[in-house]
Amino acid sequence: MTEFSASMMCADYGHLAREVRDLENAGIDSFHIDIMDGRYVPNFAMSLNDMRCIRALTDLPLDVHLMVEHPNNTIGLFTSNLRKGDTVYIHPEAEYHPSTTMQKITDAGMVPGIAINPGTSVETVFEMLRIAKKVLVMGVNPGNAAQMFLPYVKQKIEKLLALKEVMKFEVYWDGACDKEKVSQYAPMGIKGFVLGTRLLFDKGLPYDEILKEIKSL
Question: What is the pLDDT of residues 150-167, one digit of tens each?
């Protein structure tokens, strides 16, 4: 079954507890937490304390996307505040030895994942695919919400879908996710989609109505 994760950097922070509760009641599968350091990407988004807050508000899984330089230096801060079974994504380009960081994620009982930027080729991260359990394909350059989809990413997705059964990982989509992408790529084997401003937030409709329509696709 296709999974849907709420991109919490797009949520209403004036009513965060209500947002978490409403999304959970609406049937969201997990909460996507974007951590940015202002160095690996030119923006700051959610913080360690935001992650802790949401972790305390829900029993659903968290998908923590670390857009930070050298995550190996701080990975313990995140894994020590998560629950077993939560996912932690790193960007391989941000680390000297990404396999070491991924091993720490695994040893802490988390699901190890890698995030692949639009400009990063499958060949560049090929060996990491043997370690990662989840691969988050970025449809946009990381760092900001509401960006345009980069069409050349489609070929990368097709390559990953051809490898996923042999190398034992699942493929997820993040960035510029719309109804067309869900209806086209879910049947092809994309396991889950991160939902942001295009499909989920700032629509003026109850989350349960929105998610019901998305799942019908």
Answer: 677 889 999 999 999 999
CB 145 within 8 A of CB 175: no
Burial of 76 (0-12, 13-18, 19+ CB in 10 A): exposed
Catalytic residues: 34, 174
Strands (E), the chain: 3-7, 30-36, 62-67, 87-90, 111-116, 134-138, 170-174, 192-195
Tokens, residue 109: 């009982």
> What count of other Cβ atoms lies within 10 Å of the Cβ of residue 187?
10
For residue 116, which of 70, 65, 73, 166 has the smallest C-alpha distance? 65
| Sites in the chain below the pLDDT cut of 50 | none
The pTM (predicted TM-score) of the whole model is 0.94
Closest C-alpha among 198, 199, 202, 200 to residue 147: 198
| Sequence letter at residue 210 | I
Task: Give CA angle at 193 (122, 63), nearest 5°.
Answer: 85
